[in-house]
Design a protein that fits this description.
five-stranded mixed β-sheet, globular, 1 helix
């Protein structure tokens, strides 16, 4: 009898351990902050003299670069990675303290690289010399924030001429002077009827004509501010926000805006806020987080949580579905369209066992699939795909619909990766920028 009770107690103990572990993982995924590991530095003193603002021949001034396609204009990249790439510089101070995770990718114009960060109580913004890694200026503002996947910014900044716009996890839309970091105006979308989603405001601001457009949720699903003054210009729709960037789309010689929100994909007229059409697409947890792909009058979009993907043919008055399937389930990893084929990761972004696939845009046919490069994010440059898996390993892939072709790899391109490396690689003016929490690493991509 004693032996019987002993077995029961041991079994209960094991069950409690398993349940506790599962509970911790669920908490970590939903509400916890990824703890920072590896080298952390104090924020350095900015350089004494402000250099003039310059421009480059292949700048990357907003989310996904030129035309929001995930393609860099850099040419002549090194494709022989057998000896690695030369590290130009790196910094380790973007996140201060231990529970201040921030995921935003950098944007670059000439010698100005802008990237958000975080300390215990403040959203931080850094302007770093894109060539040398020196700190040009930094800015901050106090912003109480929840901890689900960290209190730091997820949204990528947007450089527009002499100004740069950032959007914090708690809803602060801020306009900074690009030259010296002067804070020109700040608005919080919650003050205009916005409602913060579970994992924080994540949508990148879109500068279009005289407006800055952002997702606010609540009674302000899409909200527009004057880009110079911060004055409210208008709102459109109500409902829960998504986690994807708003992007412009040209339909019948009119520029409209795609908003990928929690319940679907909507097209709005930015001038009057009128909703032209909406594709119902309600995922589990309200997570639509990937950027739609536009090819003339065809729009491709994809989500995780077994939603899959869809291609639609659009007009100003509506859309027709060309095809829909589950061959690509991009949770928050944006695919790239090259030569009529979609290349990208499918699967859950917290596990390094996804599939990298090639799908034909017009038909939805899967051309090939591989599990050889983990799960991660991808950027197109000079006829190649640079893929970063969530462990910090880098791969160079030649896009080809006839089969998977890996050209090179650099293991541990980002060192000390203990949590998923979710931030997309950025290529501008011949350099590759990799961000992981407090780290930002710059590699020379051309000789």
């Amino acid at each position: 009898m004693k032996k019987y009770f002993k077995i029961i107690l041991i079994t209960l103990f094991v069950v409690l351990i398993i349940v506790g572990f599962i509970g911790y993982q669920v908490y970590k995924i939903t509400m916890g902050s990824e703890p920072l590991t590896g080298k952390q530095e104090n924020i350095p003193v900015r350089i004494s003299t402000l250099p003039p603002v310059t421009t480059g021949n292949s700048d990357w001034t907003h989310w996904r670069g030129n035309n929001f396609e995930g393609k860099s204009a850099t040419r002549g990249i090194l494709t022989d990675w057998s000896k690695g790439l030369r590290k130009a510089w790196n910094v380790n101070y973007l996140c201060q303290d231990k529970s201040t995770a921030s995921w935003s990718s950098p944007v670059i114009q000439g010698n100005r690289l802008i990237v958000p960060g975080r300390d215990k109580n403040n959203d931080l913004v850094f302007c770093i010399n894109a060539e040398s890694g020196e700190l040009i200026w930094s800015g901050s503002y106090e912003a109480p924030a929840e901890t689900s996947h960290g209190p730091g910014s997820r949204a990528t900044p947007f450089i527009d001429g002499e100004r740069v716009y950032t959007f914090g996890r708690s809803g602060d839309l801020v306009c900074w002077q690009l030259e010296d970091g002067k804070l020109l105006w700040r608005k919080n979308v919650i003050d205009f009827g916005g409602v913060q989603p579970t994992w924080g405001f994540s949508t990148t601001p879109l500068v279009l004509n005289n407006m800055v457009i952002i997702q606010g949720g609540g009674t302000s699903l899409a909200i527009a501010f004057d880009k110079l003054t911060g004055e409210l210009l208008g709102k459109s729709m109500a409902g829960d926000v998504g986690y994807a960037a708003a992007i412009p789309i040209s339909i019948e010689d009119e520029t409209d805006v795609l908003i990928y929100h929690a319940k679907g994909l909507s097209c709005i007229n930015p001038g009057n806020g009128k909703v032209l059409w909406t594709v119902p697409w309600a995922t589990e947890y309200g997570v639509n987080a990937t950027t739609p792909i536009i090819s003339n009058d065809i729009v491709f979009h994809s989500s995780g949580y077994k939603m899959g993907c869809e291609a639609i043919k659009v007009t100003k008055s509506g859309y027709t579905v060309l095809w829909r399937n589950n061959l690509m389930e991009a949770q928050h990893s944006d695919p790239v369209l090259i030569g009529g084929y979609i290349y990208g990761y499918s699967g859950e972004s917290s596990r390094n066992n996804g599939k990298f696939k090639c799908i034909e845009l017009l038909t939805g046919k899967e051309m090939w699939s591989t599990d050889l490069i983990g799960q991660g994010t991808t950027t197109c440059v000079d006829g190649h795909l640079i893929c970063l898996d969530i462990k910090g390993n880098l791969f160079l892939v030649k896009p080809d619909p006839t089969g998977f072709k890996k050209v090179g790899e650099i293991l541990a391109a980002i060192p000390d990766v203990k949590n998923p490396a979710w931030t997309v690689p950025v290529v501008a003016n011949g350099k590759l920028y990799l961000r992981y929490l407090q780290q930002l690493i710059c590699y020379d991509l051309i000789q």
